[in-house]
Amino acid sequence: MADTHGSNSASPMFDQIDRALSQGLYVQVRRVLHQMLAADIALLLESSPPSTREILWQLSDANQHGEILDELNEEALASVLKMMDAEKLASTAQNMDVDDLAYVLRALPDSVYQDVLQQMQSQDRLRVEEALSYPEGSAGSIMNTDTTTIREDINVEVVLRYLRIKAELPEQTDTLYVVDAHDQLVGDVPLTTLLTVNPNLSVSEVMRSEVSTIVVDKPVQDIANLFGRHDWVSAPVVSAHGILLGRITIDDVVDIIQEQAEHRMMGMAGMDDDEDTFAPILTSTKRRTVWLAINLCAALIAASISNMFEATLAQIATLAVLMTIVPSMGGIAGNQTLALVIRALAVGHINDNNSKVLIAKEAGIGLLNGMLWASVVSGVVYFWKGDWTIAVILAVAMFINMAIGGLAGVCIPLLMKRFNIDPALAGGMALTTVTDVVGLFTFLGMATLVLA
Amino acid sequence: MADTHGSNSASPMFDQIDRALSQGLYVQVRRVLHQMLAADIALLLESSPPSTREILWQLSDANQHGEILDELNEEALASVLKMMDAEKLASTAQNMDVDDLAYVLRALPDSVYQDVLQQMQSQDRLRVEEALSYPEGSAGSIMNTDTTTIREDINVEVVLRYLRIKAELPEQTDTLYVVDAHDQLVGDVPLTTLLTVNPNLSVSEVMRSEVSTIVVDKPVQDIANLFGRHDWVSAPVVSAHGILLGRITIDDVVDIIQEQAEHRMMGMAGMDDDEDTFAPILTSTKRRTVWLAINLCAALIAASISNMFEATLAQIATLAVLMTIVPSMGGIAGNQTLALVIRALAVGHINDNNSKVLIAKEAGIGLLNGMLWASVVSGVVYFWKGDWTIAVILAVAMFINMAIGGLAGVCIPLLMKRFNIDPALAGGMALTTVTDVVGLFTFLGMATLVLA
């Protein structure tokens, strides 16, 4: 029996393709590509610089194109779509699931998108237009409409016969939905139930009537948490009036979970989670430059604080040597808290009842760690510079800055959340600015008062 | 029909419980808790400070305890286990799936763990000891052994009858596995196939013989990528000889994906992904202190660089005011690259063939952004300080540091990966140290050569 270990078995294929490409053996590249799974080809495309990507796309099997497009991340998708004309896209679209197709079409520029719709058969066009009518990021935008529905007054035996006539069930089907004459969802029957109950029972006798549903306008973030918490494999999507509209399956939710996690991690470094690993240099440079501009402002604010104390710095150069330690430690302490709070907000650990407890706890940790490291650093600096006054000033400034850092690490994301700013994106920069300003101001300010 | 919107419907319950707790109405707390899903109770426990957590645990339904324990994150789990004695734990363990139980038992201190095993019935003990015999983090440690197997020479009709006699299928079953007389996996039959084919066909005629399997010692990280890439809901786990040992289901994989993502995000801030949001202050302080110690060393290294140029700083205090800008911009540029590379490593975008392309690309971005921001900053500084020499020195230092930052941002994680160091954990600190040292050294060094 064939042992296809996915990514792992794909990696020798990646090597084969790389060798064949470098020798210009395109026939061989094509042969290997045609043996690969769509998901692995997508990974290969994402892992290739733009020029290779184009060659690989041309050599891949056109019948797999729909599946490959669906597996690509947003920016790699956009770069591949540029290689296709409207006609090709429309013919690729024919065999795709509605939710996957909606994902692909959303990546198209408006003009091309209209062209593609024109080329599509009217039935496909209607399906897609419906899927695109739900706002991006809502349950409707990721649901699939291929639910299998049954009525509650028939026997399981009849259902079984109906399924055999149907001869095929949509991918990832694990549950049949029971609806009334108005398409109102009244229950569901897992396939496992269908297979194990007495076929003479009626659907109403075997169905679960307490079904967890997702309303069509629910944001995808909440949906990801629901699936994660409740171990769902699929869930029905209903209108505000309980009409069954479609279903969301775990494979799409896994994609969302991964995107959200990437967004948090990449966002903290000022990066877009869509960023293509092998995007052209100019595109990436332009994209990252905004964040560098913001950071330059933050760095200039910090410099302007030191500038207030230029006279003191001119008098005692040792202060200049030591002054970077204070913002650094405050920033790290604050960042630890920030990461904890961003995670807690994402998984839903924080509510109005417990935020005060959290603020008190993090401020307490800041105070304790501040005390500890202030003592350590004063010892180190005395040993190094032989000056107790500067050592004590540094210790006090560091203590204050680490306590403020802890407090800011919890208050900044909570405030941002309240004003609908994404703390994963803006929290780190705001925090660092606070700890830079407070750290430099307390250290140089106290030094000016005491020493100058 | 009941509309249980999970976390969302749970949140009014959270408020009710909070009110009832603050008024000491424990009977009411108990009543609300008994209506809640285990997953929501776990979320509530994770969202509560330790004292409240203990009260809530005592008031919750003992029949739900197993499920709740399984849903808790590692550190919250450890804190709840401390409230239970070995006997209670053993009785809770009786109704748990092996993989869930293994997760819980791994969180116990050794002495208690032996006690709990003693208290368990011998059959349970054997099951658990087997699950615990696979190393943590391997496929074996998260697999469930409750596979449903069939033989290939029987008819589908017989399978259907067998399932009805069985009367129940294990949770999350979407596929039956076909094994030979030696338990060798020879194929699988999805439930959807079973329901749609002609019952007179034999299993060998309807089964898929090209089954993707997971070898029992495969690391869980790779498994998460496989599920994500191939949209699996479950996958069979086999021994090195192809013997079917169990199966891994998507719900456990979703947990792994979330943990890995948290690990990357929290790790970049020097935090443990297990960290309990409401851990006691002393525990958290102790845990975070290691990272602060490492950062203090890094900050002292940076300070010792400035210290080399103390004479120059004493001469020109403006250098002290401006010197923090250079490491800051280099650090941000490097961190952007670092985040991109850590993500790329995690999803498998980087291999031996393309790492050189990536290094060249990121170095290029660093050069371009370095040029751009060096020009901007020299203008700003000239305008501010009216000194072209210092402005140019700052620009050159910044250009060099941003280019090095980009290069370090890609080389550091690739090198760490090669030496099996986790770049998500140690990459940021190593990078910042490089950009601090290079930034301060180039800026102050050039200033000393030119101005002093």
Automatic annotation (TrEMBL), chains A, B:
Signal peptide bounds: none
Residue intervals of the CBS domain: 207-265
Keyword Transmembrane: yes
Topology of the protein relative to the lipid bilayer: Multi-pass membrane protein
Family annotation (PROSITE patterns): CBS (PS51371)
UniProt-annotated location(s): Cell membrane; Membrane
A GO cellular-component term linked to this record: plasma membrane
Source domain of life: Bacteria
Pfam family, one: MgtE
PANTHER family in UniProt: MAGNESIUM TRANSPORTER MGTE
Subunit structure comment from the entry: Homodimer.
Its job: Acts as a magnesium transporter.
Protein known as: Magnesium transporter MgtE
Protein source organism: Alginatibacterium sediminis
Gene that produces this protein: mgtE
